[in-house]
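Quick one, T. Sequence first:
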Amino acid sequence: MVITAANNTRLSRRLLWGLILLYILPGLFARTPWKPDDAAGFGQSFTFSQLPFSEWAMSLIGDRMYVEGGLLSAWLAGLFGKLALAVDLPHNWLDDAMRLGNVFWMILAGWAIWNTTYRLAKRVELQPEDPLGTAPTRVDYARAVADASVLCFLGTLGLLVRSHMQVPEIAELAGISIMLLGAVRSLDRPIGAGWMLGAGIAIAFFARGWAHCLPFLLLLLVSSMTHSSLRFGLLRRMTRAAAVFAIPFAIWFFWLMSQKNGELWWNAWNEWNVRRFLILDPTQSFDLVKLVITLKTLTWFLWPILPMACWTIWRYRKALTEPSIRIPLAGGAAGVVVLLITNPADEANYFPLLAPLSVLAAIGLSTMKRGLISLIDWFAVLWFTFAAVLVWLGWTAATFGFPAKIAANFEKLSPGYVPDVIGLELALAFLASIAWIRLIVWRTASGSRALWRPMVLTTGGVILLWLLMMTLWIPRIDYAKSFKALGDAITQSVLNHQAAANRECVADYNLGYAQRATLQYHAKVDFIRKGQFKEASECEYLLLQDDTRQSLKIKVDFESKASERWELIWTGNRNSDRHEFFFLYARTQQVEQQTENSSR
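Structure tokens:
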């Protein structure tokens, strides 16, 4: 494919950043935390927002230690929460304010991916053939390819849902993207590369631990050091710059861990990191079942950048040793290593692949034949149009009861939900659908030959689907995944039982992280964990969680041992979950009198 100035049309900076905001903002606000991962991450951040900075050394959900993840994303969300409390925002807006951290991490990741691709695309080995002397300048060509990399990044299916949740892998993705940029900058600016590598290491480490950070650091360093122009002296300066950036953070972090309960959390967090390595856990192994899970998840999670990156590797198979291909390829290899040594069933473990594969996918766009580009376009048109029609059809059935069969299926998924047509959301969904039709017309009629054109419809289709889901379906999704109604019911049950009772805390038993976080937020009570069936003298109430699929064994066991101390005053569950039940107990009057006598 001959690249000319016509292929080199670049996206305006406003449009590019506007696309990122249009991608990330819908779905962040006007909803409650969703179980399980979003709710657990919110609980971690919510606890930080309630604590003084001196107690931020230990990640908690209520009074319960939480080590699954890191601290950085929760710190940032907790900081937004503190700001929201400082300006006296309503209580139900607090979770919305904390999700602003996602906007920061997504913009940071997009910036790093754009700059990584830009610096690679300027290199000599990636310049297009120019037999007629009509090729664009290096800078113009690099900008067009970099624009395409951001579209590839936003058009990846696996990023869509979790990027709108309070999960640590979003911050880790930003850190890995910066590490990749640092490896690329080592080719010409080793000191700046050291700063970038140090920043990326710090972000990735604090975000999600060293289990993912270590493979990337090793492979990217090896890939960078094999560059012939990176002599020992330059490498030493790059390492020194990285250390200057990373060591102060490490000292501060270890000082923080030396504070109250910090060492306890640090040891538990390290144990969690070790358990993530299958080879270090004798009870785990990477067998055929995990291989099948990995291949199935890769197929949809990394669509379409995985096949596009494979195309790039094939087209540049004779130039794999060139830095412009070797460095993002090393990043992709590190992501594969992460999958092989960790749990492939966890979607969070696929996030390290997003940045290097987005770069590789964009690099190969200029080598694609016109027929392949048309195939990508028409696949996007057919698939996303069909999906959009299904979303509209589902909303029509769920709202107006026609078609009846589809409406019945929705009722099974969210029994008891009463649909309500909201004019603003309906208007936004309609405008998004019109914009999709206009985008298709523009793409097919304009004859644009810009390098990024194969990704326009794919990225636009992803944004369309998300906008439709977050306007037409968001009330029903929120109803199915939220604990707000359950939290309100618990609060009302406590008030109805004894209005004058001390309800500063509720003891809990067998309560999951997600349930604990959201119920504490919505019910506005503090949960005190009960490790055994002993009475919690500081709490008047106890909340127990059990599952009907286990024949409510925990509830039966509890009542057989503590029936004289606690009485059942409320039972409830979310309408969308037929198996998860909650039981609220109140301390019996006899126990209260005994407690008062013993205190005297």
